[in-house]
Amino acid sequence: MSAAALSQLLLLYSWFVLAALLTFLLLVARFYQKFSGERTFYKFYLVPMLLYGAASVRYAVIDRIGGDVFGDLLTGAAGLMLAVLVVFLYRRMTIGRKPL
Question: In 3D, which of 84, 1, 17, 98 has the Cα closest to residue 47?
Answer without folding.
Answer: 84
